[in-house]
Amino acid sequence: MNLSDFLKQFVSFPPEELEDIISHFEKEIVQKNKTLVTQGQVCNKLYFIEEGVGRSYYLKEDGKEITQWFFIEGKFMSSIESFFQQVPSLYYLEMLEDSTIYSITREKLDALFAKYHDMEKFGRLLSTEMLTRVVNKLNALQFQTARERYDYMLTEFPNISNRVSLGHIASYLGMTQETLSRIRRNDSPKRP
Amino acid sequence: MNLSDFLKQFVSFPPEELEDIISHFEKEIVQKNKTLVTQGQVCNKLYFIEEGVGRSYYLKEDGKEITQWFFIEGKFMSSIESFFQQVPSLYYLEMLEDSTIYSITREKLDALFAKYHDMEKFGRLLSTEMLTRVVNKLNALQFQTARERYDYMLTEFPNISNRVSLGHIASYLGMTQETLSRIRRNDSPKRP
DNA sequence: TGTATCCTTTGACCTATGTCAAAAAGTAAA
DNA sequence: TTTACTTTTTGACATAGGTCAAAGGATACA
After folding, report:
1. Does B63 reach chain A within 8 Å, measured CB to CB?
2. CATH of the structural domain A3-184, one choice from 2.60.120.10, 3.30.450.70, 3.40.50.150, 1.10.630.10
3. 3-class secondary structure, A29
4. Residue A191: pLDDT over 70
5. Hey, of B119, B132, B173, which one would you mutate to test binding to chain A, going by the most A CBs within 10 A of its CB?
6. Which of A52-61, B7-16, B106-115 is predicted with the least confidence, judged by mean pLDDT?
7. Domain boundaries, given as residue ranges, for chain B
8. Mean pLDDT score, A91-107
9. HEC states along A121-148?
10. Closest CA–CA distance from residue A81 to any residue of chain B (Å)
11. pLDDT tens-digit profile of A64-78?
């Protein structure tokens, strides 16, 4: 999905607004393993992924990486609270495949929010949608077993497992790689 | 904190806009244990708490209640994804103290979003703020021990523990009441 | 001011998941 | 196709936190 179609999903922009908005994004081709943002740095870009996969991850004191979120094509990617509150990012942002992305700076985005009421609405709807998705994950982590959390993930990110490593998925789900491997072994989808 | 001050924290509304906006809210005095929304029902009001505490909770198959969020005075309260996506609520909303709240329907709120660009901006900022808070809890649940999660909660909701029951807090933190009781017993604040 | 009800603590025991270590299976590079 | 490296699986063992049951404390109301 391209950026224009994505924007139109949320708000029916007049064509000339849409064109103006899109003209403020910059296309970037990035390679697998490229780090977009480092822990401690303020993230001042919002990215739209046209093609590819990325993740945000947190580095623990003991050096272990904890995946916080996956971002796939047709979605926005950012270190959310760093971008919106302009505070140092707790996370790294990294691409996991060769990808085509479009980026916009905080300044330009704010200008668009101020210029177009429609854009402000888009921003609001995008936030609430993301909020919904985060709440779903929260529920999974708060009251589900390891097995159920794995099932949740398959609905949130279908076939992500062919694209990213087991270790990344395990930490995303708040479990170890060994536990996830054992869950997969008994892989009849859970029936209650 | 009252509604007017809360709105002004996010956006500097012109006085007449502010007045118009506030006039669409309805004041309600509700008693302790009042249920505002039931699981399965679409939540079509957003509440502002002027005084009091509430919570959202989920009822598991085995009848156990799991607190999902606490809402205190000076904050908005709702079954977020039910209100914004107009789908049946997964949660109950309940007040835990006698409270003074202000409510607005989805229709009226949408009309205000459409009427005032400033209000749309307020909506966007409110969503991103809530998103940030939810992400913080997500992190706590995803990679912290029971003890650390308890410490996290004390920063997110200082002295909530004097106002709501231990069982509510425990389920909010994804642990049993017994575990929380044991954590509290050894209550020297964790030093790393 | 006693009685019923609810909330919190404690103890004994159990289990899901983590930890550590090594083997096996993939993947890439030469 | 051999070598080196990364990822996944497996096994043995450890432990945080859950479960169940009962005893204390609070609180409310009659």
Report:
1. no
2. 2.60.120.10
3. strand
4. no
5. B132
6. A52-61
7. 3-183
8. 95
9. HHHHHHHHHHHHHHHHHHHHHHHCCHHH
10. 6
11. 899 999 999 999 999
